[in-house]
Structures are given as structure tokens and as C-alpha cells.
Design goal:
Chain lengths: 356, 217, 228
């Protein structure tokens, strides 16, 4: 019994210490702000009290985000999102390279989801997403996009589960969390979202673990189609259904030591960063953002996804190998330049640099 | 009861080489001899815990009870430990009383001292009737008073059940008090067997004499 | 830390449905896998510790190797086996709780086997000398041996539960961290970390630690009762 009591006490003490530590040592950014009113010993007070008391206070010691958008809406930075249905007759192979013929895919469900996303309803919802929250549109509809008017069948027991393999940026922007429940509610499907970098997402589909993919890397999508892993669904003209886009944005410290703001175009901006050896955070995880970034460096640097290709640049080129949000936190911390999708960046700023 | 002749070898060294032996029923036979003379190995082979070189049992068709030098207390109370070997609470409490551990009946056997564990183990083995009961130094961890009580219990068990008892001991005085006959082992060989009084009073072998003299008999 | 603790308390108080789903999935996976591993591992461990048979040493070495298997390797193995192109594709187990449990059982059972084997190999010889001496049969011998093991079974379970609840590599691979379906505490923490939501990650971590503490307290109390 004694042991347990002391364990509990230790736990409470850790909590209390952590809480005191926080209010005792105000973050450096907040020093000049007299508004750093002592948080009335929030943690020692009963929990119910703590909740309302903190409402006005929490942002007092929050970071002021210094990282800002330095270049956007450059044609080279268009971020195209495409839907691709996975072909049930694709040349699937197992781990040893042997052909596997009977991979089971939910083609009906995949077509239903694609047709809904490309329907007037789905397109309008996607186009308006984010405006209320951020005052800016996060995604734009492409001119000449595929539009579907096909009837969407109700889900049946066999077609109910739809496996969507997608990229973290779509998932993290909250777009899918906003769209999918509406679709599910209406037609009775359940969409299981597997979210990883574009590279891993596509690999997952190639292993027969997804019915459709939603990604943003033209090169990798075209390779996927060329290998026979996608097919044209009824009523569409191509495998790659590119209907939505937004812009990658080049961000960096507001002081902009590399002068990116004044660069003629994004390639010139990347060259300026490389020439001045200003710290740059790369996703480094084979994601669509990473692929895009790799295409923007001056060719003579020879930066590719291979680690050897940038081993001479490690003094300024940071290959983080993690998600977009974590990279943004890192960039803010290091005062570095970074290429990001706009949606994630806006979320990052809206939360004062503390994601979530 | 007769044991067959056998040999036991460890790492090519012969540790025991014994002829046929007669272990009479209703009598206590003490096995004495210096350390390393093979007394414990002899007990284990008789009990079937270890096998002789030819892997055949030395005693067959006989129920044998064996009390090892260090008995294992099961994770339960002292009384339940004893009742594991025959569900007769009256007999168990009589034995515990005789050995002075009745106050410990409800206590966890794991928490008994060395001497208490030895007394519990003796109670436990005396619960059942074996044709031959082998006790390997049952009183080594006990004080004088407990030793005498234990000896009395062993004597009574032998008399009441009429089974044979083989008592391994290094105490000549215990052998003298308790045993009807004595077997003397030396370096794995039988050097003398006979009535207790005769062996102790006039040993036939030189080695026995020296061994006895060493203990001041 | 302070804001994370606040966040953690907020999350718990708000009874956020996604958090509750993550918690119940975590409980389902960890409890099932650790109990299955216990049911499998205890008999194997006792047999390996109590019996001497040819091949026993090989099995022990194998088991120790399995104890050291990185979870992510285990996860990868099951991902390949149950993938749409893998040999077990027709079961449709990939990205389900079932496969997460299976992968964890494979990870945890060797730990239980190891703990039990060590304990039994230590205890069995002395116990056996006594039970054989008393003339008990094999069945009674094993019953008494089990009785001796009870305490260490608890220790083994505590270890395996801890491993199950802390493990992320395998469940992330075979579960896919799919929201509302296979997302558990550890994969959620990883997801939030990747997203840069460190505060939320730590908040979840604190909840996980607290839960783990509670489970350990309950089990420790039960274990304490046992030793009395």
C-alpha cells in the first residue's frame, strides 16, 4: 500500500513541477509583455476551475511566428492533386516478384468516391473548404477538370469499405475529415484513410492495399499509370484525374537574408538560398512536397532523393525525414527556408506556430 | 527388502560401487561415513531421483519416500504443505505438535526458518506410509531439542507402520540412539554392515575404527 | 510541458470522441494481445524451464533472438504476408485490429516465455526433488509448479502489457493508423509528432503514461496480495 501511495504522490509532484516550471520561466518572446499575468496556480486548483481560467491566458506566452510566405503563386509551384483508381488487373507482384492475379479491390466503392468528389457537390465543398477558418481558399478547382454526373450507387456489404491511400498534406489540412463524413453519411460507405508521404502511399497501393489514391506528384503518378496500376473508370477520359490544385509556398524568416522576395522566379529564389548557404529544411521523405522541392534546385547542385547527392551541403541543407508540420516547427526554430503546401502553413500560423 | 548391486560413475570416476544390501522392514538402518563417501548419492539412487550406471532401478516394486537434505516449501501455509501428502488433518496436527510447529500451521511456509522448514518437511513426509522411507540428514538444521523430538517421531513411525527407514546421518550419536543396524560407507564402498551395537563396539574394519575414533566413540 | 498537461486534462474532460475511440482501440489491442501472449507463453515457458529434451537449447536461443526482434521488422513481415499481394490476402486482415493483435502476440510471447523459463529453470529442480521424494505424480508436480509460478506470471504479464502499450513500430505498419479504426495511442502520438503538433503528442503521451500507471497499480496490488 505504501508503495502505491508514494507512486501516486510522485506522479502528482511531476505534474505540479512541470506546471510550475512553465509559469516560472516565461518564454523569451513574452518577456516584454506585461500581459504575462501569473496563471493562478492553475494545476494545483481543481481541474474544473482550471479549464475556464486559462481561456484568455494561453496565447500570452505563445511564439510569434516569424516564418512567413516569401513567394507564392509561381507557376512552377502549382501543387496538383489527382485521384487515381487502382486497376484490379494491374500487374501486382508479391515480395519475391511473382505475379499475383487475384488481388481483391473494391472497384465499385473507388468509382463511387471518385464520382462523388468530382460531382458538383463534391467540387463545391472542396473549393470552399477553409475560407471560413482562414479567410483564404486552400484549394482551387482546375480549369478543364473532369466532372462527373454519374449516378452514385448506395453502399452494399461488399462495396462498403473503401481504402483510400493518400498523402499527409491532404489529410492534415483537414480536407478529408471535412468531405468524407458527408459522403459516408449520404451513401453508407466507410472510407479508411491511410495517410503517408506520396511515395509510401503509392507503394501501399502497389501492394494491393488501396482501392484508390489521392496524391500530388505528377512524376510518380505517371510512373504508376505507366506500370499499369491505374485504369480509366467509366465516364472518365484518363487515369489521372487532376481536378484540384493549390500552391506550394516558399517560406522563410521575415528578415529574408537570401532576398527571396525579390527573386525573379522560384528557381532563382532556390538558387539564392543555395548560393548563400542559407539553412533550408527539406521533408526528405519521398512525399509530393519533397518531390516538388527536388525539381526546383539548380541542376548543377545535383540534389536528388539519394542521401549521397546532398552530403556536401549538410551545412545548410537539412533533410528532416518527417511530416510537414514537424518540418515547419523546425524551420521556425532554425530561422530556415522551407517549401510547404499553403494549407499546412496557414494552419501552422493560425495556431501561432504550435501545431494542433 | 533387497537392493541390487550397482555402480555409479560421474565423469568417469566411480563414486559408488555397492553389493546387494538387505534393508529389513520395521527397522531403522543408519548410513554413516565421512563427507564424500557417497551417502547422499546412495539415497538418491535408492529413491529413483538418480539412476545407476545401468539405468535400472535398484529397488523395484516398492513405494519409496525420500526426504532430501534441503526440502522445498510449497507456496502455501505450513499446514497445507503437510496436507499435500495425505489429507488427514488430525494426523498433521499431531505431527506438528510433536515437532513443536503447531503454532506455525497458518503461516506461509516460505517464511519459515531453516530449522522450521526441516521440521515441516519431516512432518510432510511422515504423513504417508511408504515401504521404505529414506531420510537424508533430516535433523541437520535442527537444534538439540527438535532433533530429539524428530528422532522420537521417526522411531514411532517405524514401529507403527512397520516399514523400513534408511537414515543418512553424519552424527554417530544419532545413529547410536536410533538405528537398529548400521551401514558404513567409505569412498563409495561398503566397508561394514551390522547391528548398531556390534559395529560401534567392535568394528571389524580398520577404516571404520579410524572413522569412529575420529568422532570420539 | 504545462500547456501539454492542460491540453491533456482538457482532452479527457471534453471526452473527445476520437480520443475515446483511440483509447478503446488501444485497450482492445493491448489487453487482447497481452492476454493471448500470456496464455501461449506461460505453458511454453514452463515446459522449456522444467523439461530437458533435445533441441531445448536451440529453442531457447531462438526465443532470445525473438525477444530482440525490432517491432518494425515484425510489422513489416506481417504487412508483407497480409498485403493485397501477400499469401494471406484473402483473410483481409491488413489494417485491422486483428492483425495488430497478432503482430503484438508474436512480439510479446517470447518475452513471457523468457521470463517464465528463467524462473522455472531456477525453481523446478528443487521442487521436483521434493515432489518425487514424496511420491507425487507428474500432474501434481505440475500443479505445484504452477502454484509457485503465480507471482512471476504476474511479473511477466506486467512486462508484456508494458511492451504492448508502448509498442508503435508493428502496430503502425500493420494497422496503418487509420482514424476510427486502427489508430492507437502510440500511432496517434507519432502522427501528431509528424504533423508538428508536439503539444497534442505530449498530451496523449501523458494520458498513456497515466493509464499505464493505473493498470500497473492494479496489477501490483493483486500481485502483493498473492505474495502474502
Amino acid at each position: 500500500m505504501k508503495k502505491i501511495v508514494s507512486l501516486l504522490l510522485a506522479m502528482i509532484m511531476i505534474f505540479a513541477l512541470a506546471a510550475c516550471g512553465q509559469s516560472a520561466a516565461p518564454a523569451p518572446a513574452a518577456t516584454e509583455a506585461p500581459a504575462a499575468v501569473e496563471e493562478p496556480a492553475a494545476e494545483s486548483a481543481p481541474v474544473e476551475e482550471a479549464a475556464p481560467a486559462e481561456e484568455p491566458a494561453p496565447e500570452a506566452d505563445a511564439l510569434v511566428v516569424d516564418t512567413c510566405i516569401l513567394m507564392e503563386a509561381d507557376d512552377a509551384m502549382i501543387n496538383n492533386y489527382s485521384l487515381l483508381a487502382v486497376n484490379p488487373d494491374a500487374p501486382f507482384v508479391d515480395a519475391d516478384g511473382n505475379a499475383v492475379a487475384d488481388v481483391e479491390l473494391n472497384t465499385v466503392g473507388a468509382a463511387a468516391l471518385i464520382n462523388w468528389l468530382l460531382s458538383e457537390e463534391g467540387q463545391n465543398l472542396a473549393a470552399n473548404y477553409g475560407f471560413e477558418e482562414y479567410g483564404e481558399y486552400l484549394f482551387y478547382l482546375k480549369d478543364g477538370r473532369p466532372v462527373s454526373t454519374a449516378e452514385i450507387p448506395e453502399a452494399t456489404e461488399e462495396t462498403k469499405h473503401i481504402r483510400l491511400s493518400t498523402t499527409t498534406s491532404v489529410n492534415d489540412s483537414g480536407l478529408l475529415g471535412y468531405l468524407l463524413p458527408i459522403f459516408e453519411e449520404k451513401y453508407g460507405y466507410e472510407v479508411e484513410v491511410y495517410s503517408a508521404g506520396t511515395g509510401k502511399s503509392i507503394a501501399n497501393a502497389k501492394m494491393g492495399n488501396a482501392d484508390l489514391i489521392l496524391v500530388h506528384s505528377k512524376k510518380q503518378e505517371e510512373a504508376f499509370i505507366a506500370d499499369g496500376f491505374s485504369y480509366v473508370i467509366d465516364g472518365m477520359e484518363t487515369e489521372r484525374l487532376n481536378w484540384m490544385y493549390n500552391y506550394f509556398v516558399l517560406c522563410g524568416p521575415s528578415a529574408d537574408p537570401a532576398g527571396v522576395k525579390d527573386a525573379a522566379d522560384v528557381k532563382a529564389a532556390f538558387k539564392a538560398i543555395a548560393d548563400g548557404k542559407y539553412t533550408f529544411i527539406s521533408r526528405g521523405d519521398g512525399s509530393g512536397t519533397h518531390t516538388k522541392e527536388l525539381s526546383l534546385w539548380p541542376e548543377e547542385l545535383g540534389i536528388t532523393a539519394e542521401a549521397e547527392s546532398f552530403q556536401d551541403y549538410t551545412d545548410w541543407y537539412v533533410s528532416a525525414n518527417t511530416g510537414m508540420g514537424a518540418c515547419l516547427v523546425m524551420a521556425e526554430e532554425m530561422g530556415a527556408y522551407i517549401l510547404t503546401d499553403k494549407a499546412t502553413f496557414l494552419t501552422f500560423v493560425a495556431n501561432d506556430g504550435v501545431m494542433g | 527388502m533387497k537392493t541390487t548391486a550397482f555402480t555409479k560413475t560421474y565423469n568417469k570416476r566411480v563414486v559408488l560401487n555397492l553389493p546387494e544390501l538387505e534393508l529389513p522392514k520395521g527397522q531403522i538402518t543408519a548410513v554413516i561415513g565421512p563427507n564424500g563417501s557417497g551417502k547422499s548419492t546412495f539415497a538418491k539412487i535408492l529413491a529413483g531421483i538418480e539412476r545407476a550406471d545401468d539405468r535400472r532401478p535398484v529397488l523395484s516394486g516398492v513405494s519409496v519416500g525420500y526426504l532430501p537434505q534441503k526440502s522445498f516449501p510449497f507456496r502455501m501455509s505450513t499446514e497445507k504443505n503437510i496436507l499435500q501428502n495425505g489429507n488427514d488433518p488430525a494426523c498433521a496436527s499431531a505431527l506438528m505438535k510433536a515437532l513443536g510447529i503447531e503454532a506455525l500451521a497458518g503461516q506461509s511456509a516460505k517464511k519459515l526458518s531453516g530449522g522450521e522448514t526441516a521440521r515441516m518437511a519431516l512432518c510432510r513426509i511422515l504423513m504417508r506410509r511408504y515401504a521404505l522411507l529414506i531420510l537424508d540428514e533430516p535433523t541437520a538444521a535442527m537444534d538439540m531439542e527438535s532433533t530429539l523430538a524428530a528422532e522420537e517421531c521417526i522411531r514411532r513411525y517405524c514401529d507403527e507402520t512397520g516399514c523400513g527407514v534408511l537414515l543418512i546421518t553424519h552424527s554417530i550419536s544419532q545413529a547410536k540412539r536410533l538405528a537398529d543396524q548400521i551401514i558404513v560407507l567409505h569412498e563409495g564402498k561398503l566397508i561394514e554392515q551390522g547391528d548398531t551395537e556390534r559395529v560401534l563396539a567392535s568394528p571389524r574394519e580398520e577404516q571404520t575404527r579410524r572413522f569412529l575414533e575420529f568422532f570420539g566413540v | 510541458m504545462g500547456s501539454s498537461i492542460r491540453k491533456a486534462i482538457e482532452l479527457i474532460l471534453s471526452a473527445d470522441p476520437e480520443l475515446l475511440n483511440i483509447l478503446s482501440t488501444t485497450a482492445k489491442v493491448c489487453l487482447t494481445s497481452s492476454i493471448l501472449a500470456l496464455v501461449l507463453g506461460v505453458p511454453i515457458g514452463i515446459l522449456l524451464g522444467a523439461e530437458r529434451f533435445p533441441g531445448r537449447k536451440v529453442l531457447l536461443v531462438l526465443n532470445r533472438t525473438l525477444i530482440g526482434m525490432p517491432p518494425v521488422v515484425c510489422g513489416l513481415l506481417f504487412y508483407m504476408l497480409f498485403s493485397g499481394v501477400g499469401p494471406f490476402r484473402h483473410l483481409h486482415w491488413l489494417f485491422t485490429v486483428k492483425l495488430m493483435i497478432l503482430a503484438q502476440v508474436v512480439l510479446i510471447t517470447p518475452i513471457i516465455v523468457g521470463v517464465m523459463e528463467t524462473f522455472v529453470a531456477d525453481t523446478a529442480p528443487a521442487l521436483r526433488e521434493t515432489t518425487r521424494g514424496l511420491g507425487f505424480g507428474r500432474l501434481k508436480e505440475y500443479r505445484l509448479l504452477m502454484n509457485e509460478c503465480l507471482y512471476s506470471i504476474f511479473s511477466a504479464y506486467l512486462l508484456s502489457f508494458a511492451r504492448a502499450i508502448a509498442e508503435v513500430g508493428a502496430v503502425a505498419m500493420v494497422g496503418g493508423a487509420i482514424a476510427w479504426k486502427t489508430n492507437v495511442m502510440t500511432t496517434a502520438i507519432m502522427m501528431y509528432t509528424n504533423r508538428g503538433s508536439f503539444t497534442l503528442g505530449i498530451a496523449l503521451g501523458l494520458i498513456l503514461l497515466t493509464l499505464s500507471l493505473l493498470v500497473n497499480i492494479v496489477l501490483s496490488v493483486m500481485q502483493g496480495r498473492l505474495s502474502r
